[in-house]
Design goal:
alpha+beta, 4-stranded antiparallel sheet, 4 helices, 32% strand, globular
Length: 301
């Protein structure tokens, strides 16, 4: 497993935790790193960034071509490799993605070169408070003050904090946490600020520790994590070549029998008066020869 990974600083934003706290977040572009050489069983040389082939020096260009690189890296750097469970060391030309190295909750250290600020005074460079603004002083508000003793030792000690060049120094920030990994867009979100200007290269070192920070994804502008729901009871899944269709289960025969029984009971529970009328209509009519009188009014003998 690779424990070091090179990224590019793209800027800062903010995010909110589940309990409503706001976090300062640094967005890092984590493009694939490519193995350019195997230095030792624990050290690899990897290429990172991207550069046009015509802008690369010929000796390095031929090395990329012989290695079969999928792209031309802008820079080369060392990275530590830790083998886990007899994991094979990657070969030259292999690409390593950021999501295969980092996960949400990993505690990391970020190393980079700070912004250059040119020549700066002691107040800006080291945080000196300056001299008092009274007692007749007119131009000593941001002065250093005394820089040493007199005759003994008769010189200024080396390393004395004084005005000079400020910035462009290698700094390492420890204790940062990976709070979001976007494999599709090759981006990592890190809690807190990191050294360097925008588009500068940084080295991330994985410490092996974890600290979970639960984000409010909606408030932070992140898409919600879709969780696959369980299949509802009463459906059967039939998988086609590229689609999954849920078909309803056929109703058992017992239900049909129950419905017919209910209809019979409903018919029997009708109004008794209606039933009597139906019986009267169903009786046969009397024959005219025996019961009906004759047409001429005479009685039959």
């Amino acid at each position: 497993m690779l424990t070091d990974f090179y990224v590019i600083k793209t800027g800062m934003t903010q995010a909110w935790t589940a309990d409503g706290k706001r976090l300062a977040v640094t967005r890092l572009q984590a493009r694939d790193n490519i193995v350019s050489a195997v230095i030792s069983p624990t050290i690899l040389e990897v290429g990172y960034g991207s550069k046009k082939e015509k802008n690369i020096k010929k000796p390095l260009r031929s090395r990329y071509q012989q290695g079969g690189f999928s792209f031309t890296p802008a820079r080369l750097g060392g990275a530590r490799w830790v083998s886990q469970n007899d994991e094979a060391q990657p070969k030259v030309g292999a690409t390593i993605a950021a999501d295969s190295v980092f996960a949400v909750g990993d505690v990391i250290e970020v190393r980079g070169i700070t912004k250059g600020r040119g020549f700066a005074g002691a107040v800006k460079r080291y945080g000196f408070h300056g001299g008092p603004k009274t007692h007749g002083q007119s131009d000593r508000h941001r002065a250093v003050g005394s820089i040493g003793a007199g005759t003994t030792p008769g010189r200024v000690w080396k390393g004395k904090k004084m005005p000079g060049h400020y910035g462009v120094e290698t700094k390492t920030i420890a204790g940062l946490v990976v709070i979001h990994v976007d494999a599709e867009n090759q981006e990592i979100w890190v809690s807190g600020p990191v050294p360097g200007h925008i588009n500068s290269f940084l080295l991330i070192h994985k410490t092996g520790r974890e600290r979970q920070i639960e984000l409010n994804r909606k408030a932070s502008g992140l898409s919600e994590v879709v969780v696959a729901e369980d299949v509802v009871e009463g459906t059967v899944e039939t998988t086609a070549e590229s689609e999954t269709v849920a078909e309803p289960v056929a109703a058992p025969e017992v239900e049909k029998t129950t419905e017919s029984t209910e209809k019979t009971e409903t018919t029997e529970a009708k109004n008794p008066e209606v039933a009597a009328v139906e019986e009267t209509v169903a009786e046969p009519e009397a024959t005219p020869a025996k019961d009906a009188p004759a047409a001429d009014g005479s009685e039959s003998k």
